[in-house]
Amino acid sequence: MAQSDEVGARDGSAPTSTIERRRALARRILGAARAALPADSPLELLLAEDVTADRASTVRVVVRGPDAVGRLLWPPSADTLGEAYLRGDIEIEGDIGTAIDAGRSIDPRRLGRDLPLLARLGLELRRGATPAPILRRLARLTGRRHSRARDLAAIRFHYDVGNEFYSLWLDRRFAYSCAYFETPDATLDDAQEAKLDLVCRKLRLAPGMRLLDIGCGWGSLVMFAAERYGVEATGITLSAAQAKWATEEIDRRGLEGRALVTIRDYRDLDGLGPFDAVASVGMFEHVGRDRLAEYFGAALGAVLPGGLFLNHGIATTATRGGLRPPWLHFGDGGFVGRYVFPDSELVTVEDATGFARRAGFELIDVQRLRPHYALTLKAWIERLEASADRARELVGEEVFRTWRIYMAASRRGFEDGSLDVAQLLLARPGADGPAQLPLRPWWSG
User: Fold this and answer.
1) In this structure, which CATH number among 3.30.420, 1.20.120, 3.30.1050, 1.10.30 belongs to the domain 13-127?
2) Which of 256, 220, 257, 218 is nearest to 240 (CA)?
């Protein structure tokens, strides 16, 4: 055997081949990673070469060879683990949420005195690892952050993946936001219709009124409000794919003249209004903190005096200066910014309320829906995994994996309280003072 193919074992035993040596290093490192987990963790960590048909645990992470183990070691971050999954260096078999929980519970302090030795072994393994395959789908946005052109590119990066892909796991109305569950076992279709109805009730919609939906997606609220409440509804989106699907669906439902979805930026509402009521459901996260004053100002200008605005959006529960969950960052160029929602940014519910008030709105009500989003994501993940083969055919392995791990991590964020979602019901004051509204919540019961 050539010298380049042979190394001596450090414990003085007989020489072994380079491949065998690297496999031994990889197994030892994975064993250490398992030791860094809590004793009762169900996670099983294996090299692909060691996998058997029988799985002894509820979830198994399979690493595709020593090179993949080496690439996992640097930089040591949650993003590195996420990217390893996207490119296929690791496979997650079983419940992906359990795997995410296990990853978050790794504590190197459990390794004690073995940690320095294992770090040296890791460096040795990494030195011989081949470079990581390049991920094809990466957001490469240019221009000023949250300019019209860059926002257009950011929205289309996420939403123009393909309508058929989204149809595999969204409800029948294509509502891509938190549903509203009466019970945990309610169907996704029922829960999404309940959310749409809640929005309409809060806005006090009635026949003949005009409704604007900012960031309308595939037009679920626009069509629901036109059909069920007899309003004239207009929705705006930056996604060409969404607008095309919504327009065709409006025609199919016979809603021409009562419902409209058009491509337009929220900063360009001139000529559309005024409206009796305005909604924004699941778009708020894309605006960016520096643009929130402009965003709420645009909504205020679109609604008639005395009219209502409902803002439904994801929020962070981390106050400024506080700790954020290290596995799910928005707005900082991390995993979410690179592969899922470029330029997205979360603020607290308290901050959102402050921006709304400074724009001129009166705060009527705040309703938190955090547990409902965890249930929504659970349903989406189950439906996506049930249609995994078709999803891969439509968008490829990398995109399928991106949505699977992103939604699973998001679900955990809503379950542990690091993420939140809330509906702010706001009123534009009338000419003579605050909006005249009923004394008690009119949407209850």
Assistant:
1) 3.30.1050
2) 218
